[in-house]
Design goal:
The protein is 52% helix and 11% strand. The protein is α/β, with parallel strands linked by helices. It folds into 3 domains: 76 residues, no CATH class; 180 residues, Rossmann fold, CATH 3.40.50; 51 residues.
């Protein structure tokens, strides 16, 4: 685009920075291409700081929080009473929920140990619900059984948005012991519903969660006990929970309401246009631009292949079912053969060999029937 249309305005919008993914993810790539971008917009100051540490120009990076629809996500006393009654909770009982995909970056393996430590610390009544599915759900359920937590902790699997709204309306505490986050959308929603966040101190969570409306826990060898201590304090003090609930709702209403996102983004797009006029980026030779585009396509092909392999691995881990060796070899063989046949197939179709199309469909249908 830069090579063909040097007068257009180019900007990008980035969410989080993770050193373990793509060597820093899209923010790392954005730093490399900053000389061709008029402006970079990030959804939290933690991303901006990390990019500047890595050599980015701070004058070309601006923060625009994604925010939350506080008209939709708001406390609902009727739903709260309905859900809590269905769960058998008394008015002063504490309901703790976790929502999210049960994968390593969310560290769901900490949930049951935290709840076990909480039960040792407090005589107060409470219930913990895990909403979500993923490859580590089986491990969480085994931990619940092994630790004897069936009476105070349940997994509900994946639930719809309306159910999430209902459970948040009923909840007192939102527990999120993640390995990594940007600024968690789920935390935005929970706080808008008046639910107190108890979160890992990672990413931009500290930009959203203040001391008067939630808790941040640093990673470390004693964090399970730290989480349990915070939850124990909240479980034994309904008045404290009410005060912090009000403060959590007030914070997102004042500082992170969705109505502020549009005007902020519009102003930043206008600024990007001004920067393009005042200090335009250097033009790229067309030949170099074509080579970069070709490399992007190749990288994308590799990424798609690796994603497919990773998805297959996660499915195997989740099911704990070993495929028969013959079926496994067939699947591996097809993955090897298909890329080899793709190029001659496309060449043949391009040169009028239309009989290849129905042949391909018949072969694919046969493979599906055989479970290949």
């Amino acid at each position: 685009m830069r090579a063909h249309f040097p007068d257009i305005t180019c900007l990008d919008f980035l969410h989080s920075y993770d050193e373990r993914w793509k060597n820093g993810g899209y923010p790392r790539a954005s730093i490399g291409y900053q000389s061709q971008l008029d402006l970079t917009i990030v959804s939290g100051d933690h991303v901006r700081r990390r990019m500047v540490e890595k050599g980015a120009d701070p004058s070309r990076i601006e923060v625009c929080y994604t925010n939350v629809d506080t008209d939709r996500w708001r406390p609902d006393a009727t739903r709260r009473a309905e859900i809590r009654a269905a769960l058998g909770l008394h008015p002063d009982d504490m309901l703790v929920i976790f929502t999210g995909r049960l994968t390593g970056e969310k560290r769901p393996q900490l949930l049951a140990p935290i709840i076990a430590a909480l039960r040792r610390r407090t005589p107060a009544r409470f219930l913990a619900l895990v909403l979500g599915d993923g490859p580590e759900r089986g491990q969480v359920e085994r931990q619940i059984r092994a630790l004897g937590l069936d009476d105070v902790m349940r997994t509900l699997g994946r639930v719809g948005d309306d159910d999430i709204f209902g459970y948040l309306a009923a909840a007192d505490v939102f527990l999120l012991p993640s390995q990594t986050e940007g600024i968690s959308v789920a935390t935005f929603e929970a706080m808008a519903m008046g639910v107190i966040p108890v979160s890992a101190d990672v990413g931009g969570q500290g930009e959203l969660i203040a001391a008067d409306c939630g808790f941040l826990v640093a990673h470390g060898p004693h964090e399970v006990e730290e989480y349990a201590e915070i939850l124990s304090r909240l479980a034994g003090d309904p008045a404290l929970r009410q005060r912090m609930s009000t403060m959590a709702r007030g914070r997102v209403e004042r500082h992170f309401a969705l109505r502020d996102f549009g005007p902020r983004m519009a102003a930043l797009i206008e600024r990007a246009g001004q920067l393009r006029c005042e200090s335009p980026r250097a033009a790229i030779p067309l030949a170099l631009a074509r080579e970069w585009a070709t490399q992007v396509i190749e990288y994308t092909r590799h990424e798609i292949a690796l994603d497919a392999l990773w998805s297959e691995r996660e499915q195997w881990c989740a099911s704990n079912v070993e495929l028969p060796l013959r079926q496994l070899l067939r699947q591996r063989g097809l993955r090897f053969v298909r890329p080899l046949l793709a190029r001659p197939y496309r060449w043949g179709v391009a040169h009028g060999m239309e009989w290849l199309r129905p042949l391909k469909e018949r072969l694919f249908a046969a493979a599906r029937r055989r479970g290949w």
